[in-house]
Write a structure and sequence with these properties.
alpha+beta; five-stranded antiparallel beta sheet; five-stranded mixed beta sheet; about 20% strand; globular
Amino acid sequence: MGSYILDACALWGATRDRVFFKEMGFAPAHNVDSVYIHKEKGVITSCHTDDPITVCKDQAAMDWFYATLAEHLVIKDVVCLEPGTVIDYLSMRLTLAEDGILRIDNEEKIIEFLEAKGMSNCNSAQTPLTKEMLTRACTVDNEPLADEEITTYQQDIGRFNWLVQTTHPVLATAVSIASSFNRQPTKGCIEMVKHIYRYLQHAKSLCLERDPAVMPELKVWSDADWAGLFQAIGDPRSRTGIIITYGGMPVWWMSQWQKCKGTTCKADGQPYSMGKAGLIEAETDDDAGTDIIAMASAESKVHAMSDGLRWGLHVKHIGGEFGIPMPDVLQIYVDATAAIGFARGNSGTTRMKHLDLRAAWIQQLRDTSLADFVKVDGNMNEADFFTKLLPRIKFKEHEAKLMSKLPSDHGGLHK
């Protein structure tokens, strides 16, 4: 059966490509999969499996696209995005208000997830995860789950990840951290999952919102939390957080562990050991003196800046292919003066001597034709949300910036 499905998928993919490329004259997008562009006609279509969503420059282009497509493939229905209608695309619901505001939500999918879990009528939670829950899962309730329970846990994480990848950046940090238990979840992880579902009871009515009144600017925010969960769960890894917005709406976000672990170095570049009592454990009394190069926090932010630049360029290239105005030089907002100094090559302000300046990622970071790193206050860095589990009040502040509440009459729209 598996081989048959793979063969059928390959056959459909070849048929779709033949129609778009050979019969209709489309070219594949270079920077994103499953997107086809016809520059002459002014048509861009994204087609995942057999579910397309298409943007046309005018009515004539739309008439040509669907008439030509119908000559080669069977078309079920065509729905145009306008006030009063809904486009259902890959579980996401797209709507357009009378004032031109575009909204993207996943309310129906979240309701489906809650029903499948038997939590349709559960009380809502205002945050998805807390440090206390993590600590409990690693200490008090650290008994391993049975195989069947592990499978269920992984399925739940899969559902949450779908929401993270589509419409809910507010889940990114909590789900990334919960995903790190995928291989060996404990009894405490069951309570973590239930709490995330309770947050979904609240978050099902949240949406991404693009207001045409907001200036269409591309902004990149980057931050890192150096070994932030070490005291809670003993994990020395740092976490990178990135948020990219266009016209005020999040278009790309990331919260993930960094591959480099939290540490500091001596003056000769040799690392100190990681201690349980504090974050750093000096090997001798002399090691606590002035010869310590405490570079780890700044270094974690440098790595985050590099990722921010890389993904910012990726979004910029996609926008360029789509004909969306993009800046010549990216503005990347960072809250670390030392990290910015390193990116600008100010050797007098950095102690990260151990990094190989010949590395391609550092050369890219220092290319002023690609990006300008702008210093912002730590409390104003939007990427801070994606680096750590925030207290409730701070979490709600960021939630309100990232997502909007669906209008009360939203459920009455038809597909």
